[in-house]
Every structure is written in C-alpha cells, then in structure tokens.
Amino acid sequence: MLCVPQVDNPKLLRFLMVEPLLVGVMRKWNNNAGIVYAPDPQLHLQAFSHWTYEVTDKKLMVVDVQGFKMPAEGSAAPRILLVDPAIHCVGTDYFTSTNCGGEGGAGFDLFLESHRNPKTHYCGKACKAVRDKFKAFRKKQHEEAEQAERTRRAFSCLRVVPDRASPGGTASTSPLVDKKLGQLKPALKAHEECSKLLAGRALPVPGALFQAIEDCLKHRLMAPERVAELHRRRVEGNIGRHDWFDSMGNLTRVN
User: Fold this and answer.
1) Mean confidence (pLDDT) of the chain
2) Which residue among 107, 149, 193, 241 is least enclosed by CB atoms within 10 Å?
C-alpha cells in the first residue's frame, strides 16, 4: 500500500493512493540483458517483448518483464500481473539507466540473440500469432491517428483569430460554438445541483443526469416543478450535444 498525504493542503490529508496487494512469488521472465527464466519462460510474454520492438519500427522494446502469477479464482482463469518493466530505446535520453537500446542497440541485440536461438525456441508460435496481426494493428493505428487529426482540424476551424489581437487578448469562438455551449452549460449546472442535494444526504450521485434528477424526486429533495425544469435543460443539452457531433462532418472555416 502506498500512501501519499497531501501535506501542503490539509483538506486532502484523507486521500490515499492504494495499490492492489500482489501475493505469491515475484518472477522475472526476462531482463534488459536478454536473459530469460528458462524453467518457465512464458512464451507469450517473450512474444510481447518481441512485438513491442517490431510494432515501434525497432525503436522501442519492453523488457524486464516481471510480476506475479495469480491463481484461478472461481471461473476466472489464472492471470499474470506485470510490474515495473524496463524500456530499451534508440534514444539514450529516455527511460533512465535501464535503457540499453542506445549506443549501438546492445539491449535489442542481447534480447534478439537469446530469443532467436534455435536451441531455446523462444521465438515460435506465439510470436507468429502476433506477427500475423501486425499489419492490421498498424493499419488501425494509422486510421485512428488520421481520424484524430481530422477531428483536431475540425475543431480548430471553429476558432476565429482576430486580425489585430492584442498581447493580452484571446481568440473568440464562432457563433456555432457559442450556441452549443449555451445549450450544454444548463445541463451541466443541472447535474451539479442534483449532485449537491444527493451528496448532502449521503446518497450516491449517478453519472447520468436523468437518473440524478429522478433520484432527487424520489427522495423528495426537489419540487416537481423544479424536476420538470431540470428535465427541460437535460433535453436541450442532449439536442445540443447531438447537433454538435452531427455538424462535425460539415464544418467550414470561419474567416
């Protein structure tokens, strides 16, 4: 358990960061020098290290693969929980002193030499299984990156930069953005109002505005007239949100 008290803010002293308890014997299945735990190599973990090297165009490799083998619980299959890996990188300024990927790529070579050794057969069916899906994975990555870039450009089209913006000034938003924000903000305020009422009675706060409003009505924290008003704001916010995304494909630059 790792406790991090916020000593600079007394109001946050009660907050803790807790890691799950890992039981059993910790095992290192490979290290950053290419050594593999031969009695139990866990070939899918060796394939993972190999895959990280290939999928990053031979620029990175996750090694020092270590952790705990968790026994089966009920119908759940046994699991391996991994902790504290190391990363080889072609750049020597990254990932601390455990990075042996620079200076000629010694860390990469050490892993590949033992991994591809015909006597050990660590590079086998598991590696082939992920290698066969490699191209499809990279294609999906590129498609997602392109979609993210299109979305970023679409949102940037909503910005209007003044011709003579003062150093302390800011760019203004387009009328479309102002309209959508005007529709969305009342719904957000409605959820805040419900949250305060429910939390004040130590009741759970639903993430969905509809349920939050209904819970306030159920526990008689809000008059029916107010419930109707918040539902009206909720519907208006939903319309604004749907219109926002429906318009993404038809955005034009605002000059």
Assistant:
1) 77
2) 149
